[in-house]
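Take a look at the protein record below with the fold in mind.
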Amino acid sequence: MNEHEEIAKALKARLSELRTHLAKVDRSLRKPLPADSEDQAIELENQEALEVIEKTETTEIHQIEAALKRISEGTYGTCAKCGEPIDPRRLKALCAFPVRLNLQV
């Protein structure tokens, strides 16, 4: 068992959750607007919120995919900016983030 197998398992589970939820969000965004103008206004507000969720979840998916790639390449846990090891507590808290805390912009 490699040292990051448990993290990879958690990341894959989160990735699956995100993809499932993102598919639901996408379906909601694609449904036609109601005929009534008041209902349309409400639906457009809901769509704006869903678009923010979609963007946020898509970003998280990309971060998780990159983390899984780093795990498979053996570079996970090494700062992408300076090459120093990332504190294990940071990896546990933000396992998809590739930069040490003091180098975060």
